[in-house]
Structure formats: C-alpha cells, structure tokens
C-alpha cells in the first residue's frame, strides 16, 4: 500500500488513520454479507457459508477498530494533549 500509515510496522499506529483502509473494509464487509445473504443463508452450516460469516465478522471487527480509533480514541488523545499543554502554561 502507498499510504505512509499502512507502511508503519506497528499495528496500533495504523488504526483509524488511513481512509483507504476504512473504505476497503467497508466495501469488503458489505460485499461479504450481501454474498452470504443472497447465496448461502439457506445453508448456514456449509463451509462456504461459515467462511463468509467468519470473514464478515473479521472485516466488521477491523472496521469497528478503525472507526473507534478515528472517532473516539484519537480525538480524545488530542483533547487530552491540548488540555495538558494549556494547563502547563
């Protein structure tokens, strides 16, 4: 990937910073669940159905980690840093 965040070695440095990754995870999640719904929901115990369910949950989990970092953790850290910086003056 060409994103500087994605080329980082540390997993937690990547989360919530790359819009391309979040877009890809959104598309993968939607496509995975749509394929499961239209092709495999009638056979939930088939190996294909189980693979899509596991993949869907993995995509959703990673997307929620990205979104949580972007909209909760990173803004909180910025507010906390700016509050400490203003408080030291």
TrEMBL record:
Residue spans crossing the bilayer: 21-40, 46-73
Keyword Transmembrane in record: yes
UniProt entry keywords in alphabetical sequence: Membrane, Transmembrane, Transmembrane helix
Domain of life, per lineage: Bacteria
Protein name: DUF3624 domain-containing protein
UniProt source species: Vibrio olivae
